[in-house]
Design brief:
The chain is 74% helix and 0% strand. It is an all-alpha fold. InterPro entries: HPT_dom_sf, Sig_transdc_His_kin_Hpt_dom.
């Protein structure tokens, strides 16, 4: 494991959502909807990474990992953000898409933390 995937503390930085809520005038409904959308799309985003690796599609893999990284950052899912950042770096270091299968363990690591991230986010907006 590297410095990017240390997911030993809380999986979600709740201060990110608190700050976003303050920026939006304190509207809890908007934040709850934002989190719900992230939670609903997270399994799809991870599945998209798996599919891109299976198809050896480096462009789709990059697009999928950037989507995961950006959305995770915005919602405060710090572990997902770290893991996506590490995966992005790994993709960029590959000579071509034929080597994407080498990154399967990193996507499995993302899988490993997905349920916990969803649980923490759902708890944070109740």
């Amino acid at each position: 494991m590297s410095e990017y995937d240390e997911c030993t503390d809380a999986l979600v930085d709740r201060t990110v959502l608190t700050g976003l809520q303050a920026e939006l005038g304190g509207d809890h409904v908007i934040i709850a909807t934002f989190v719900r959308n992230y939670v609903e799309l997270l399994p799809w985003r991870v599945h998209r990474l798996h599919r891109a690796l299976e198809k050896l599609d480096i462009e789709d893999a990059m697009d999928a990992v950037l989507s995961l990284k950006t959305s995770s950052h915005m919602v405060g899912a710090k572990c997902m953000n770290r893991l996506a950042t590490e995966l992005e770096i790994s993709i960029r270091l590959l000579p071509n898409g034929d080597h994407l299968h080498e990154l399967a363990a990193q996507v499995q690591e993302i899988d490993h933390f997905m349920s916990g991230t969803i649980q923490e986010l759902e708890t944070s907006v109740q």
